[in-house]
User: Fold Lysine--tRNA ligase from Tabrizicola soli.
Amino acid sequence: MSSLRDAAMNSKAWPFEEARAVLKRYGGKDPAKGYVLFETGYGPSGLPHIGTFGEVARTTMIRRAFEIISDIPTRLICFSDDVDGMRKVPENVPQQEMLRQHMQKPLTSVPDPYGEFESFGHHNNAMLRRFLDTFGFEYEFISATEFYKSGRFDDTLRLAAERYDAIMGIMLASLREERQQTYSCFLPIHPETGRVLYVPMKEVNARDATITFDDEQGREWTLPVTGGHVKLQWKPDFGARWAALDVDFEMYGKDHSTNTPIYDGICEVLGGRKPNHFTYELFLDDQGQKISKSKGNGLTIDEWLTYAATESLSYFMYQKPKTAKRMHFDVIPRAVDEYHQQLRAFPEQDVAGQVNNPVWHIHNGKPPESRMVVSFGMLLNLASVAGAKDAGALWKFIRRYAPEASPEKNPDLDAAAGFAVRYFADRIAPTRVFRLPDDRERAAMEDLVARLKVWDGGLDDEALQSMVFAVGKEHGFEPLRDWFKALYEVLLGASDGPRFGGFVALYGVEESVALIERALSGELA
Assistant:
């Protein structure tokens, strides 16, 4: 443990850097509450998306890193702001008209359009927990509805009434003049309609911990701020939650970064200590737009898991959290292959290298052995030319290439073969565009066929790659990338592909000859 802890204390891996900052927060002393509290927040206005998963995955990585460098106990809370009023109907859910009748009601008061749960908020919370449980996260779930109604938040809400002017001072400084006229950090929940009201306060009574306001019809109401009758606006809610729970660490997206001084200030006004922060870059869809729960753009967790194992998604989340990421289907194959490259490297690394390896953080220091003797990218191309309908069809080629491999000995490879067939059928086959070769490309491919027909070098990837390379050079391709691009476009219907020598080794020399001859005869195009 000492050598591991020493390596962790010097690691440049971002989870260890953040963990050391949290440890420094207490200056060598244990927290008065007896543990360090990590928190993630979730707004259940729509179905959970991959960004939500990423927040919990990354926070978990920091939590595990902290547990290596410190003996202080830890907790991770996933907090759902399900008292938030539904401001718009998500585009990707059923019963749109029914939902429109419940606008501005807390999400846990909106009927579930799927008819499965007590409310839409309960449904989305259940989806979040199912997704998180799929990955084996250890977390405690808190619903804001329960938090407000049970009284757990009451002391902080009373303090907010007492220090209302200080909170408003922070908030008003961040608002336009027009918005300042009607803003209040308290949002009453109408006793009759159940809607969350955005109305100015006529009075905030600190002694009684009540608010007085007029509703949209001009009727005056007085409500206690406690017991779930009132909620806080989302920015004050952030800081108040930190104060109430004594949160030590929370990460959030770059779109929140300008609000950090507001969150911190309100936390401190309410007697709390601002937590450590980590701001990550946003997830984008294939058009470069921010992923939105209400739009349903970008990848969902279920969509990723349709085409790859869970670990590949965790690997994707680990990589460069401060760099914006496109979350689209085409990132999956690379994530799978890079993950297995790191798995293969891990046993050969010293402790310092291992704690900097992404798979250490994905598997809490105990990564499995990779049995992927064929890359996912290669499996995709094999599925393409073999016309495979299931993983079994690929194993005929895999066994010849790697005789010692089997579905039983290589379960990760077997699973990847199934994913590859599905990914090819859904994501690649509909987009393929084959073309005929031009005269120079045809001459080079005919030369390649001639050499393959007399090939006696076995299924040696490197030797085959060198031979294909030599054909391109001898036929004047400059840069050589154009030669390989021509092979991919003519034979696979795509502009990118595998190392061609490796592809021939896996698919087979005779089969590759037949494929090239079919392309030259015009069968593919």
Observations:
- Residues 420 and 516 are 23 Å apart (CA to CA).
- The domain at 2-177+232-283 is CATH 3.40.50.620 (Rossmann fold).
- The first helix runs from residue 2 to 10.
